[in-house]
Amino acid sequence: MMINSDKPFPEKNKMPIQRAFMRTFLGIRRKLDFTSAPLSMLQEEMLFNLVHASTAKCVEFNIETNRERKKTESTFILMSNLRGICEDLIWLTYLSKMNKTSANELITLLIGRNYAKAIAVQRNFFEVNNPVQPVLGNNVSRRDAEDSVREFQNKLREFWRSMNCSRSGGPTVREMAEEVGLTSTYAYLYFAASNFVHFNPTPLLATGWGDDRVDDPVFTYSTRCLRGYYQMFSSFYAAILFIGYEASFGQNYFNDVLDVEIGQLMELIRHVHRWPELVTFEEMNVEPPLFFLTHAIGTLAYEEDNDLPFGEIIREVRNLNT
Q1: Other CB atoms within 10 Å distance of the CB of residue 245
Q2: Other Cβ atoms within 10 Å of 204 Cβ, number
Q3: What pLDDT is attached to residue 175?
Q4: What's the whole-number mean pLDDT along residues 105-114?
Q5: Dihedral of the CA atoms 320, 16, 55, 119 (nearest 10)?
Q6: What is the pLDDT of residue 34?
Q7: For 33, what's the count of Cα atoms within 13 Å in the CB-facing half-sphere?
Q8: Given this model, what pLDDT does residue 76 score?
Q9: pLDDT tens for residues 198-248?
């Protein structure tokens, strides 16, 4: 809980960068074609369709996260959705490294398993909550619904065995990220976004802000207290994730070249004085440094010494096409 009067990532400091991100992603949305393969080819072009669907989601997320808002309560929703985009990039890049037949088979099995499980759960829910409402699956017995789930689970286990995978349920997201070279992306972004998906007392308490001018302050809880943080975190890292999408899929799946737009995004990222952190100075009631000054010093240091570590996450997303 915080008692500082200044919010992290105040709106007056972040909006010019976010407007520039918005303009770039509006241009990307105009250039890219997100249509599917023809209906007759859907089955054999499963990965093509998923890449287009996920890229559209990523672009639209970037547009939404950079939108200027009159109502600010909604920005916390962005953080949890960032996880889905991160996981999509990891999964789809992993699938793209498979041969087309295997990728299509795995996608088909995952779809079948997910539908079977959803119908079983839906059937059980409506059976005890609203049995008069017709839903898909309410004419199937509980046993048949559960058998269908087990059938797909068994097929998935057989698939992974055929791929010489040691895990019967397939690799974890972490293992897929490591295999395709997205280690930093997983370790930081996936962890950060997961904080807002699962129960976690830390981000809940961080929404409490008080007045440091009183001796024994109380804290008022509201997601509005961190609206600038939520929006800047999502804006900055979603732009990096899109660079990964372009590197991984641009050559084989995009209908147009985005060299200019990727250059614009890279230039904007270089001008961001403060990369959004997981634990901020503000939430720990520590006076933050002058980030514009540390950014300038860092820029000079990197120019003089190319061996200084910098931007590993950017290097790994840009190298996805190698």
Answers
A1: 25
A2: 14
A3: 96
A4: 97
A5: 120
A6: 95
A7: 9
A8: 85
A9: 999 988 888 888 877 788 888 899 888 888 899 999 999 999 999 999 999
Confidence check: pLDDT of 47 > 50: yes
What are the b/e assignments for 287-308, b being 16+ CB within 10 Å? eeeeeeeebeeeeeeeeeeeee
Dihedral sign, Cα of residue 159, residue 54, residue 245, residue 296: negative
- Judged against a pLDDT cut of 70, whether residue 5 lies above it is answered with no
What is the pLDDT at residue 168?
A: 86
C-alpha distance from residue 55 to each of 86, 196, 237, 250, 285 (Å): 11, 22, 15, 10, 39
SS (H, E, C) the chain: CECCCCCCCCHHHHHHHHHHHHHHHHHHHHHCCCCCCCHHHCHHHHHHHHHHHHHHHHHHHHHHHCCCCCCCHHHHHHHHHHHHHHHHHHHHHHHHCCCHHHHHHHHHHHHHHHHHHHHHHHHHHHHHHCCCCCCCCCCCCHHHHHHHHHHHHHHHHHHHHHCCCCCCCCCCHHHHHHHHCCHHHHHHHHHHHHCCCCCCHHHHHCCEECCCCCCCCCCEECHHHHHHHHHHHHHHHHHHHHHHHHHHHHHHHCCCCCHHHHHHHHHHHHCCCCCCCCCCCCCCCCCCCCHHHHHHHHHHHHHHCCCCCCCHHHHHHHHHHC
Query: Considering Cα of 172, then 181, then 30, then 66, what sign does the dihedral take?
Result: positive
| Cβ-based neighbours of 14, under 8 Å, separated by 6 or more | 228, 231, 232, 235
CA angle 75, 9, 259 (to 5 degrees): 80
Tokens of 49: 């369709």
User: Residues 169-181: pLDDT tens digits?
Assistant: 899 999 999 999 9
Residue 23: other Cβ atoms inside 10 A: 13
Q: What's the pTM value of the predicted model, to 2 decimals?
A: 0.91
Q: Is it the case that residue 309 has pLDDT exceeding 70?
A: no
